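Exercise 7.
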Amino acid sequence: AIMAPTVALVSVPGQIQRGLIAAERVFDLMDQQPSIVDGSLTCEPFTDACRLDSVTFSYNHSHQVLRDVSLTISKGKKIAVVGASGSGKSTLVDVLVRFYDPQSGAVTFDGIDIRSYSGDFLRVEGIAELLEANLAYDQKVVSTDLGGFIATVIA
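Solution. The predicted structure, written as tokens, is:
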């Protein structure tokens, strides 16, 4: 009857040490400077179109996930991006909502480069919803409503 409490008591310092290491990792992450520099613009709701103009993106600068992608999404229109696993569907949405900046090309809303907008504005005001729902056959649907521009990705 005394062994269980003793074993539990002996394991406490190890648990504390693991917690301290995890906290240190979190604080290191919080101290990092963001790679995306915010613009300062806010604007009225989008009225015309969202455009990707010759967008190229890679995560590690060696394998391009998106290569020279051009796309126009008119306000109120819905698109679906469908492709094989790893083909860049989710990355396309990540670039569209500026979780990442493209290495070349531009993403614009109503003709204004999204790098001109404040990230808080894009993510709070501009993006009405970002949903992820699991479907049958291990598919994932991500639907993004950008003030009337709706992009849906089936992964």
